[in-house]
Design goal:
By secondary structure, this protein is an alpha+beta fold. The chain starts with 25 loop residues before the first helix and ends in a 16-residue tail after the last strand. The protein has 4 helices and 5 strands. The N terminus is likely disordered.
Length: 133
C-alpha cells in the first residue's frame, strides 16, 4: 500500500489534472519566489518570526487543505508538483514545524509524511487569512 494519500482530494501545490486554472498556477508561483534571492521579500510579524513569501504561501495552502480534515499527506500536498517545488514545500514544512505551526509524522521512517495542525497553526501570518475554527 504505497499510495495512502488517495483520500486527500488533490489538495496541495499543483492543481489536479482536471482543476484547470482554479489554483492559479501555484507551482509556477513558487518557482518565481524561489528564484528571487533578494531578502526584500521577507515579511516581519509581531513576534520574532520572519516570513518568506514561500512560507506564507505554504501556510495559506495548508490552512485551506486542513480546514475540513484533521491531516494531510505530503504526497497529496505535492501531487503533480515537480521535484524542486516538492523539495521547497518540504523545507517550508520543516520551518513551520520548528515554529510549532504543524506537526509532522512519518511512520517507519520511509512512509508518507502526515501533516497536522499544531499549537501555533492559527497564529496570525502576514498576508494569510486566519484558519477556520
Amino acid at each position: 500500500d504505497d499510495d495512502d494519500d488517495d483520500d486527500d482530494d488533490g489538495a496541495g501545490l499543483a492543481p489536479a489534472p482536471d482543476a484547470g486554472a482554479s489554483l492559479g498556477g501555484v507551482v509556477d508561483d513558487l518557482h518565481a519566489v524561489e528564484a528571487d534571492d533578494d531578502a526584500s521579500g521577507i515579511l516581519p510579524s509581531g513576534d520574532d518570526r520572519e516570513w518568506h513569501p514561500n512560507t506564507v504561501k505554504v501556510v495559506g495552502l495548508l490552512r485551506a487543505a486542513l480546514a475540513d480534515k484533521p491531516e494531510l499527506s505530503f504526497g497529496a500536498f505535492t501531487r503533480g508538483a515537480d521535484k524542486r517545488s516538492a523539495a521547497s514545500a518540504f523545507v517550508e514544512l520543516l520551518h513551520l514545524k520548528t515554529w510549532d505551526f504543524v506537526a509532522l509524522d512519518q511512520p517507519g521512517g520511509r512512509g508518507d509524511i502526515s501533516v497536522t495542525r499544531a499549537a501555533c497553526f492559527d497564529d496570525p501570518v502576514p498576508g494569510v487569512a486566519a484558519a477556520a475554527a
